[in-house]
Amino acid sequence: MSIGFRVLERARKVDADWVSRYREVPVANVSDSMHRMTAGGATLRPMHRKGVLVGPALTVKARPGDNLMLHHALDIAQPGDVVVVDAGGDLSNALIGEMMVAYAIKRGVAGIVINGAIRDAAAIGAGDFPLFAAGISHRGPYKDGPGEVNVAIAIDGMVIEPGDLIIGDDDGLLCVPFDQVGEVYDRAAAKHAAEHKQLDQIAQGTNDRSWVLASLKDKGCLLP
């Protein structure tokens, strides 16, 4: 085993049914259902025009500024995969651009996450292929390695195992662990439904705001 320069097999991944279900739930509701303790970091932003990102993770640990292992990951990715690259958040060199995105689309990849930089931002920003990144740089990448594929990675404290569920929308990016997709979905779907009900009550002027005053009193706030 060559730790730091290796490609492993992915033992499991979330199935298409969960991907379809999570597509209808906002990331914020999922985050709330995970006690707001997990996040991919505020710097990871959608670089594409519109559209949600949902799919099983194919993970890449890359040397900052080098995309050799990302190229291989795209070659072995299965349709529907989300390629997630931990490049240390370095923005010196872009790891992906328009041509690699075109290849990913051809391969049926569901989206890409780069904890690092991209380039060809105008072309990528005009499209709907889901791509999240930490920044933009015109300087291109090196292709020397080392790196790893299908290993556990971490982005801003958010651990991602190969096959975990990756979701992203305009509010940011989130990983749902493989073993918890069912439990988290049930909570998130219930919260989403409750928020729709609350929005209807707001529109009708029937929403209950008594909790605010009750909370202030309970916390000892001085009131007039």
TrEMBL record:
Tell me the residue numbers annotated for binding substrate.
G97, E98, M99, M100, R119
Which regions form coiled coils?
A: none
InterPro entries (alphabetical): RraA/RraA-like, RraA/RraA-like_sf
Q: Does the keyword Magnesium apply?
A: yes
A GO molecular function term, named singly, is:
lyase activity
SUPFAM superfamilies with a match to the protein in the record: RraA-like
Give the signal peptide as a residue range, or say none if absent.
none
Cofactors named for this entry: Mg(2+); a divalent metal cation
Q: Which UniProt keywords apply?
A: Lyase, Magnesium, Metal-binding
| Name by which UniProt lists this protein | Putative 4-hydroxy-4-methyl-2-oxoglutarate aldolase
Tell me which species this is from.
Answer: Pseudomonas reidholzensis
